[in-house]
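sorry for the late reply, my laptop died twice this morning and i had to redo everyting from scratch. anyway the thing you sent over, i finally got around to it. pasting the sequence first so we're on the same page, its 862 residues, then the predicted structure underneath. double check i copied it right bc i was rushing
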Amino acid sequence: TQRDHETMQRAALFSGGDAQMAAGDLGELLVPYMPTIRVPKSGDRVYKTECAFSYDSPDSEGGLYVCMNTFLGFGREHIERHYRKTGQCVYLHLKQHVIEKVPGASGGALPKRRNAKLFLDLEMNSDLNSDDFEYEDEAKLVIFPDHYEISLPNIEELPALVTIACDALLSAKSPYRKQEPDSWEEELQASKHAKALVQLDNGVRIPPSGWKCSKCDLRENLWLNLTDGSVLCGKWFFDGSGGNGHAMEHYKETGYPLAVKLGTITPDGADVYSFDEEEPVLDPHIAKHLAHFGIDMLQMQVTENGLRDNDIKPRVSEWEVIQEAGVKLKPMYGPGYTGMKNLGNSCYLNAVMQAIFSIPEFQRAYVGNLPRIFDYSPLDPTQDFNTQMAKLGHGLLSGQYSKPPMKSELIEQVMKEEHKPQHNGISPRMFKAFISKGHPEFSSNRQQDAQEFFLHLINLVERNPVGSENPSDVFRFLVEERTQCCQSRKVRYTERVDYIMQLPVAMEAATNKDELIAYELKRREAEAARRPPPELVRAKIPFSACLQAFSEPNNVEDFWSSALQAKSAGVKTSRFASFPEYLVVQIKKFTFGLDWIPKKLDVSVDMPDFLDISHLRAKGLQPGEEELPDIAPPIVIPDDPKGIYSLDIDESSVMQLAEMGFPLEACRKAVYYTGNLGAEVAFNWIIAHMEEPDFAEPLVIPAFGEVASSGAAAFGAVGLDNQPPEEMVAIIISMGFQRNLAIRALKATNNNLERALEWIFSHPELEEESEPALDVMDMENNANANILAETGSEGPRVKDGSGKYELFGFISHMGTSTMSGHYVCHLKKEGRWVIYNDLRVCASERPPKDLGYIYFYHRIPS
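ok and here's the structure:
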């Protein structure tokens, strides 16, 4: 046919003619390479939509080459590197062509596909009207180094194994399918149970908060079964989140297949899991199913001014002000003006990464070092932090993915040959999948706190050095904390590392109190009379008041004064022992309302373009100040000596560990020696003690005051010669600290485990450069705590200088809490403000500097 003839012509063009093989030789040609061709198994990740080093895909000009051994994808510019490194010769080349339809040929039908198998789950290019264009998928085997090409499908002449491998590769699922129970990256499928789900009329009504598992005491990770309304806990997995699996047990008893996670319900949907299909699913009828139990989805988050989204909203809503709605914004193109696709609530990541890659130190470290990073990347570059950072940085800064649309006559001309679709913006799917791996929050599809993500990223930058300088040094500063005993007036000075200045919102200093009170009265009247609420009045807080609140003393909870050797009142003030090159300021807008629901203070703070915080410089111990003596609080030994060592073991933690396959006695010891602090800490103990000969021996508990058989005292008692108990040392080592540090900390705190950990964190300078011993701790939520332990004996690396700064960017959040809503980023580039709203990058007309959440300042060179 005409079509096949064209294909042959194109194949000849692509291969330059010499690479076409006579039919009979194909099998023989592939013989030497057969050992390197693999058929993908269920655990293999097949990357057939995106290059590991760039954002090239099958519809890029050079198509995509998929390695038939590792199943990694490479664009035309990066394929040679993989071939040189691995010697792998056989690749599947995927190319998607966009062709203008011949009028009348297909009668305006939907685009025909040449290969019955659609190998790309690429989104259709929305710029192209499908009535005028059609997509052609082309697959070929390419053999390096001579670029021999074999068009597919070609069942007659190819060895069966090769045909099976190609088929499996073309039909493979997205590599971003869930790796953990709570993370799914790709588009969810509708559950087969959703349409005809039976719901029992048992009168169950679910309250908006205060839930608890009906079979145990857990209050988080709770799932509402959509058939009978039971509220039960989810599975436990070793990031420490999870539960006792009661929801799953209930399904096994009843067969009721669908459950929704409480706390994830918003007007846009909710996280639904199908026990039967064993994966997260979509429930197209979720609103109806929730209403059955008295949950109104639309009520779960009312818009800022109390109106539903479908009512007319006044221009003051933060959604409009922050996104600069109502003004026609001019799109920006070129290097540094590249948008990022929202992967479903991933705007927090987009906003932070746009800000990070506007900073020259990050540009230099990753994009400047790109050839070196790519050449030395491991065999699987999708799992390498620096490779993925360099890829993202290059994607944003090269301008390759941000080209202005062509003039129409040019388009006409191009269409006649072959349409090169406009590909603007990048999809950070591989980046998100890698950096959120193993993190219970960021690996989910829910909205997250941009500030927590910023710290998580800094933590990863710290742990994956690139060259001699770490770009994250530009954010690091030292905080001097001065604690004073109110009774004796004696003081203690300590230093800690930080990356963010957190400013409290001084609500009491609002300059428009009268209007706020009047608005609140009107709003209540309107609510009572069911009228639409009045136009929103937002609290105006002077920046100076927030700065003042930051510098004032705070009360210290539960302060033990070493001067009085008793509990007493204490206050703490914080000052800058060094000023960072880049100052990140977070406005603490998020608080917890009653019933612990996170809510946001909708306030306007007049953030300055130029900021001087030199007066907050730390001064150290002042003349006339007396230091608090360095004495640790005493250990309280109870009257009933047996009580403290009686066998109190948390059986639920023991069972969770036993289910992972560890010997029961080892699990009991782990839970006992870690003081019943939960399965995660006990898991660390197990990993640290697995090699020991008595690992699975039964637990032996010495009588009080007797020395334990291991030569160390029982848990919590003081050891011989003041050597700390081995069990305690092991717990601290299992958290990733070095042995000598663990011993020093325990000695300094009289072997009190909790205070020993505090001691370590307050003496970061003593931590040798030690890597955490465990990957389990790698994704520690408390990024700051991890980062504290990173410095060498010379003290933390800081770039101290003057305290004068200029604003160059800010991230704003709209919505009622960090768990929902939307983030955008404004950055000052080449002297003008630009708004980055996921894929849309435009010149900003009215940057809403007063409504930001995180602000980025750069030091003014003095």
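The mean pLDDT is 80.
thats about all i looked at so far, will dig more tmrw
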